[in-house]
Amino acid sequence: MEELQDNIQFQLTDELIEKVEFLVEEQSDKELKNLLNEFHYADIAEILDELDLDDAVYVIKLLDSDTTSDILIELDEDNREKVLQNLSVKEIAEEIEELDTDDAADIIAELPQERQEAVISQIEDEEHKAEIQELLTYDDNTAGSLMAKELVKVYETWTVAGCLRRIRGQAKEVTRVHSIYVVDKQEKLIGRLSLKDLIVAKSDQKIAEIAKDNVDYVHVNDDDEDVAKVMAKYDLEAIPVVDDTHTLLGRITIDDIVDVLKEEADKDYQLAAGITQDVEADDSIIELTRARLPWLFLGLVGGVGAFIIMFYFEDYLPEQALILFLFTPLIAAMAGNVGVQSSAIIVQGLANDDVKGSVNKRLIKEMLLAALNGVILSLFLFLFVWAWTQKFDLALAISVSLIAVIIVAGLIGTFVPLFLEKRGIDPAIATGPFITTSNDIFGIVIYLLIAKLILGI
Amino acid sequence: MEELQDNIQFQLTDELIEKVEFLVEEQSDKELKNLLNEFHYADIAEILDELDLDDAVYVIKLLDSDTTSDILIELDEDNREKVLQNLSVKEIAEEIEELDTDDAADIIAELPQERQEAVISQIEDEEHKAEIQELLTYDDNTAGSLMAKELVKVYETWTVAGCLRRIRGQAKEVTRVHSIYVVDKQEKLIGRLSLKDLIVAKSDQKIAEIAKDNVDYVHVNDDDEDVAKVMAKYDLEAIPVVDDTHTLLGRITIDDIVDVLKEEADKDYQLAAGITQDVEADDSIIELTRARLPWLFLGLVGGVGAFIIMFYFEDYLPEQALILFLFTPLIAAMAGNVGVQSSAIIVQGLANDDVKGSVNKRLIKEMLLAALNGVILSLFLFLFVWAWTQKFDLALAISVSLIAVIIVAGLIGTFVPLFLEKRGIDPAIATGPFITTSNDIFGIVIYLLIAKLILGI
Q1: CA B287: distance to chain centroid?
Q2: How far is B428 from B271, CA to CA, in rounded Å?
């Protein structure tokens, strides 16, 4: 059971990487093969991600293309791009031959235009080539861009026995059978059945008799996130893809959906933190700066705005009231925190489709929620300011305006994402710096206005 | 194809809900059944989530237990709890009979202790009962808590033909076969094969000949998030679960893993926004307050801290330098934003297992990154302050300290999550208010100190 434990407990150690680097250095190909063949291709990909480009390419060229094709898929996108640049059109085509159509299309799509055609022209299997070319025609983030052409298809008129005989052929090239899709003479999807149904059925039964006709499906142009939601909601492990005429085009399997869900979650998480999507901790400083600086600049502009507001207020405030300014960071922080909390919960609710009912209901609920939190927090602040400054009216002014600030911040945080969603803009951008910055400014204005009012300055 | 379109395009409309409410009101059971039977159980669950408790219970009692058991699983946890309170022990037991062992155990685990035993004692199928009782013994968030006992198991000594004959029996009670697991006489997991392999194989071959021995598996006590990572990494749709002796105990399917991944992502996202995990937009104001108020209080304490710091600095600053205070919200905001950015990317990297290499390398990289961002931003701030105040030294003081603040904020944001991870604490708590608040304070201190230094006050 050793290998199993390797699989499950694989740890990428520096020793292992050094050993691989050494074997590459020594060009002791046999040992290298023996070492790496112990590992799952996903693990080998992790190793290659840590190697220098030359070493990685050396390993790719060394191993058999049925392994390396799988490794390529698992490589970090940046590394894969570099590796592919170091492979000849012929070599890439050989990898492509080994891959399922969806993975093959993904890899080819990453190549520069002129190389794409060169590689495709090198694919020997004409059917495989045609299928890949079809997949390349579908837009990103659609069901078509996720689906594979590999599937097991039977005609309603076949018998169970004939079906079993025939799908032996089809099944060979399909990694996982999942459902068997039933089509009519026009290749239109009309039902499904599982291998289990087939095995349990009598061999002389007609497919039409045992097929289930309630087959879920998606349209080739459906949004990939919607496909993910449907498959997750209905616990589907594969879903067929059809066109306007219900012709069966391909199928999407759950492993691709797991990736979509993870990407979506990562994107929202990064936006909430003020990072424009699609960077990793290991990206270059320039890439990370490109992702982070715009949001920081937004914050800077907001801060400058806050300064200008306070600057003008200062003229109207007498000396003794300047203490108000010492609380502006607190006010701004609270406005920002409340805004992020309320926007985040709405953004997540929208992502999970569990935000229903009217916008007004949401706003009223958030107002009550913010008011409740605001009152509790303001009570503490009131007591502190009163005890510290011995000025009742000042303590009152600051704590009352904190309540107002928290309520407004909560409402902005709730309204903005709902508004963006209605406008068809990704509400996730409404969390993080966007909300904190706008709330900083609103908060400080409201704070100073109310304080001024109460202090009767 | 009508029903398919309902499935895929199901929209929860007010009309539909009102119609259901009306039919319940009228007690026109036949129409109600006909209406609901059109929908997938996951859709019916969405409808029930919108109904009053009484109406929901009425529908549950009306429909057949093979449907309602699936509906129960899909209901919002809060609603399910309420519904179960309104079902008799006998009724719950009937639902349990219909469910796979993993779902059955999850539902029973949600019941109060005394009801648990009452329900279990009512389960008629003795094997089902025993399996559920076994599953209830495993800790939350372990492989054991995710696995189901339903699986297809064959002995290495069987022939393909005998195997097919025998698994017809087992397969009936298994919703999805996925892999067939091969065990030896001691029930120890020694390999796997797919239904496809079985169908493609010759009927007189021995299982031992065609079985694959490189079967991934997890230990019953493995952490559920690790199981999710393994299944996602190796694109597994089901994985067997074994104990210390490699005895096959059960299996985990990908649909449960999708839920684990979503929950984990939601939790991190909420923590980043300063919301203690496990609330939804539709939870009560009290629940939401409990999840949000502690973080806001943290922010309040931080703000008070900032006030105290500024208060004491004020004594040392001459009139003309009070303008420094007008920039504290800007400084605090920048410190917070940078901190959240750098911590979020580390937290996400840790979650996705792609943060490798030494802590020092990370800190140095983040320092360079923050310095780069800081210089660019400070340049703008310098020009603004200089133009606005006509004071070169003031502009210099403020913008230089901004660079320092951004660097420190970036380092704190990078170090804290790495530190927490090493200590075995969920680094996700290090994002959001925790980082913004601590960075507000550090930021303001650094800012005022450096400004004081440069201004030579």
Answers
A1: 18
A2: 6
Which residues, at least 6 apart from A299, have a Cβ–Cβ distance to it below 8 Å?
A274, A433, A436, A437, B330, B333, B334, B337
ipTM of the assembly?
A: 0.75
Q: What is the rounded CA–CA span in Å between residue A310 and residue B359?
A: 41
Q: Read off the tokens for A402.
A: 């904190």
The yes-or-no verdict on residue A8 having pLDDT over 70 is no
Contact between chains at A300 and B377 (C-beta distance less than 8 A): yes
pLDDT value for A132: 94
Residues in A 296-335 with any Cβ partner in B closer than 8 A:
296-297, 299-300, 302-304, 306-307, 310-311, 314, 322-323, 325-334
Question: Residue B407 — φ and ψ, nearest 5°?
Answer: -65, -50
Backbone angles phi, psi at A67, to 5 degrees: -80, -50
SS3 call for B194? strand
Token look-up 């104001």 returns: B285
Task: Report the residue of B15, B258, B350, B438 to disrupt the A interface, i.e. the one with the largest count of A CBs within 10 Å.
Answer: B258
Closest CA to A219 of A158, A307, A139: A139
Mean pLDDT of chain B: 86
The pair phi, psi for residue B230, each rounded to 5°, is: -60, -45
Residue A308 has pLDDT above 80, yes or no: yes
Q: Does B162 touch chain A (CB under 8 A)?
A: no
Question: What secondary structure does DSSP assign to A237-301, as a single string?
Answer: SEEEEE-TT-BEEEEEEHHHHHHHHHHHHHHHHHHHTT--SS--TTS-HHHHHHHHHHHHHHHHH
Q: Are strands A218-219 and B238-242 parallel, antiparallel or unpaired?
A: unpaired
CA–CA dist B128, B117 (Å, integer): 14
Nearest CB partner across the interface for B177, out of A196, A272, A314:
A196
Distance CA A291, CA B204 (A): 61
Q: Which residue of A has its CA nearest to B313?
A: A326
CB contact, 8 Å: B383 with chain A?
no
Kindly indicate the confidence band of residue A4, based on its pLDDT and cuts at 50, 70 and 90: very low
> How close does chain B come to A129, measured CA to CA in Å?
25
Q: How many CB atoms lie within 10 A of CB A56?
A: 24
Nearest in space to A241 (alpha carbons), one of A211, A273, A272, A216: A216
Rounded mean pLDDT, A210-222: 90
The two tokens of residue B395 are: 């502009």
Decide if B432 contacts B271 (C-beta within 8 A).
yes
Q: Do A168 and B372 touch (CB under 8 A)?
A: no
Q: How far is CA A186 from CA A147, A212, B32, B423, in A?
A: 21, 19, 37, 62
pLDDT band at B130 (very low <50, low <70, confident <90, very high): very high
- pTM flag (> 0.90): no
Structure token digits, residue B61: 């009692």
Residues 6+ positions from B264 with CB-CB distance below 8 Å: B225, B228, B351
- Measured between beta carbons, the chain A residues lying within 8 angstroms of B279 are 345
- Give the integer Cα–Cα distance in Å for B293 and A197: 54
Cα(A209)–Cα(A157) distance, integer angstroms: 9
